[in-house]
Amino acid sequence: MTKMRTRGEDVRRFILDHVDKHPADISKITAVHFGITRQAVNKHLQRLTAEQALAESGHTRNRVYKLAPQLEWKQAYKIIPNLAEDLVWRNDVSNVLGTMPENVFNIWHYGFTEMFNNAIDHSDGSMIGIQIRKTAASTEMLIYDDGVGIFKKIQTTLNLLDERHALLELSKGKLTTDPKRHSGEGIFFTSRMFDSYDILSGGVYFSHKFSHPEDWLLERDRFESGTFVWMKLHNHTARTSKKIFDQYTSGEEYGFNKTVVPVKLAQYGNDKLISRSQAKRLLARIESFKIAIFDFTEVDSIGQAFADEIFRVFTSQHPEIGITIMHANSDVTQMIERAKSRPTI
Predict the structure, then answer these.
(1) What was the pLDDT predicted at 206?
(2) Quick one: how far is CA 212 from the chain centroid?
(3) What residue numbers bound the domain in which 324 lies?
(4) CA–CA separation, 246 vs 248, rounded Å?
């Protein structure tokens, strides 16, 4: 009886995890995955619908399923001197999220308090809004403000080229406009803890998916003022905040000493990555880390001077920093190896 109950729970968990991508054929893919009949799957679908974990529409042959919202909540807060992220978490957000596995709850605690505090301290706005939507499978949260915009704030404060340049620096980690009060690690680690993490601000949209190590950047017509941060996490993920922290530490030290640099963020439009100036922009603040991984996703080619500046000049000046690459095609790899082979005088 216990085995049957466990298998039934596995079937229902599979349905909840895959129904978003297979709303019309969830019965078929579940039957194939578990080697059971569609009639057996339909009993589980009926149960999940009765429990209001799923919502159904359409007739028998054209029936479509989707996750039903179990909770939808929103609240706005004026940015006043006594507004504090820990109080909002304790009094409101933690209660709204409800019962969750400890590791999931801890990730939400970290992500929410970091993002809400950023809005309090850096947005220069007058309000912060929160929206939460929870289903049987996952929870989503939106935190937004009406301030100047995170990328614009970084660009202005640090005198960077534009908002895209601000995103490049932000993606490395250890970046803050207020180093006396912030470590600059919050956004970096938060973006890597969640299944999906997105920021929309000004003319830049940044996205990180846990299943994809690279970051994604989209530029668009300017959006309304403020910053919008979306976070999504499976309600039963095995991920822990400690595992994420450990990925970016090395050796016996527990400091944040490893970063991934998305090389494509240094590329504007159809420009090629050929100059030493572009390379130096990528290398800014890399000396703050012990390990730097240059991610060449979607970079088709690089020039000799660009490669030389990073992989010969910088590495010879900073032998204590480990420089490695990922997702480089054969042309990029060849240019890097050529730069490394040149003697350093």
Answers:
(1) 82
(2) 9
(3) 250-341
(4) 5
* CB 170 within 8 Å of CB 187: yes
Q: Is the model's pLDDT at 59 over the cut of 60?
A: yes
How far apart CA 310 and CA 294 sit, in angstroms, is 10
- Per-residue pLDDT, 182: 47
Does 83 lie in the same domain as 49? Answer: no
Q: How many domains does the chain have?
A: 3
Predicted confidence (pLDDT) per residue in 212-226, tens digit: 655 555 555 555 678
Give yes or no for residue 93 having a pLDDT over 50: yes
The HSE-up count of residue 277 (CA atoms within 13 Å, CB side) is: 5
Produce one character per residue of 123-151: b if its CB has 16 or more CB atoms within 10 Å, e if not: bebebbbbebbbbbbbbbbbbbbbbbbbb
C-beta separation of 121 from 182 below 8 A: yes
Report which DSSP code applies to 264: G
Half-sphere exposure of residue 56: CA atoms within 13 angstroms, side-chain side: 19
Given 15, 50, 67, the domain boundary residue is 67
**Which parts of the chain fold into alpha helices (H)?**
2-18, 26-34, 38-50, 85-88, 94-97, 102-122, 150-158, 163-172, 186-193, 241-247, 276-283, 304-308, 315-317, 330-341
First to last CA, the chain: 75
Residue 8 has pLDDT above 90, yes or no: no
pLDDT in tens, 238-257: 999 988 888 776 554 545 68
Lowest average pLDDT, out of 65-69, 116-120, 285-289, goes to 285-289
Regarding whether 31 and 163 lie in a shared domain, the answer is no
Q: Angle, to 10 degrees, between the axis of helix 163-172 and the axis of helix 186-193?
A: 80
* Across 78-107, average pLDDT: 95
Structure tokens at 201: 């601000």
337-341, Cβ contacts within 8 angstroms, sequence gap of 24 or more: 338/304, 338/307, 339/304, 339/307, 339/308, 339/310, 339/311, 339/312, 340/311, 340/312, 340/315
Q: What is the pLDDT of residue 179?
A: 52
CB-CB contact of 261 with 279 (8 Å): no
Q: Tokens 């999940």 identify what position?
A: 48
For the entire predicted model, the pTM comes to: 0.73
